[in-house]
Amino acid sequence: NAGVTQTPKFQVLKTGQSMTLQCAQDMNHNSMYWYRQDPGMGLRLIYYSASEGTTDKGEVPNGYNVSRLNKREFSLRLESAAPSQTSVYFCASREGGSYSYTFGSGTRLTVV
Amino acid sequence: KNEVEQSPQNLTAQEGEFITINCSYSVGISALHWLQQHPGGGIVSLFMLSSGKKKHGRLIATINIQEKHSSLHITASHPRDSAVYICAVKRGSQGNLIFGKGTKLSVKP
Fold first, then answer.
1. Is the confidence at residue A39, as pLDDT, over 70?
2. Which among A90, A59, A21 has a CA at the least distance from the CA of B86?
3. CA atoms of A68 and A79, how far apart (whole Å)
4. Are B47 and B56 in contact (CB under 8 A)?
5. How confident is the model at residue A99 (pLDDT cuts 50, 70, 90)?
6. Partner-chain contact A100 B43, CB within 8 Å
7. Which of B42, B48, B96 sits opposite A100 (nearest CB)?
8. Which residue in chain A has the smallest CA separation from B5?
């Protein structure tokens, strides 16, 4: 039972480079989320997808794009990475109508 | 002022001690979550509460909706309980989670 799988676990980027963080869940959940976690702050919502085919901005969407490729997969793209995007990124999923969330193990991204 | 406040920010305890972590919130909620994050690890959901009290092993979570306050208790603490404990609240049935900054717990043998 994999739950929510994120790849990669670690990544170092140079300023201006692009990359995509991958997230997949095998629980048939409708809703998926991308958060970032920074020192001294609570997790903040970047983007979410309430169902396949829909995406919405969260609290801190600038500099990011997302794709809900299918029900299983929700990717986060940094088109031109900036040092301010150095963070730990978490993907999560939730079944529609449920208040229970499942989190991935995180991606630690450093932008130099 | 943050909508979700946790206290204390850091907590050091001796093995076997009874531990309490507090969470206060300022918005109307439909549910409150307690999450655990081990160093270098992912986030695990411990409890989801909308009223009353829940118990799982040595962990107990309570919520007082009128006072907008929740507590997480750990009985007979153990070094493996060392982690960051995060409180998060959900606003309404369609709202997204709002997270506290977390409480870092260290249990010494």
1. yes
2. A90
3. 17
4. yes
5. confident
6. no
7. B48
8. A42
